[in-house]
Amino acid sequence: MHQFKLTEMKTNLLYAPESYALAHAVSADLNTMKGTLAWQFAVIFGNFEELSKQPITVGNVAVMEHQSRFIYFLVTKENVYETTTYNTLHAALICMREHMV
Q: How much is the pTM?
């Protein structure tokens, strides 16, 4: 088993140090409604065109490399107005873990 260090921080996710990978849940349609976290990610990190070239399916993860870190988009639902389930979140987290190791 790989050794890792888990650190819990209370800070704005968008301004975490560049040595940290970031992850958040999105819908497969990559809807970036103004004011949402996905919209803020699009404004700060841009390059959603790169994401749309990846196979984006529910229960999977889309990955963007930004400068020196990875940003993980956990695809947990088909459309922005739907609700994430534990099953789709779990599947996306497993995919993220596989990319990390």
A: 0.83
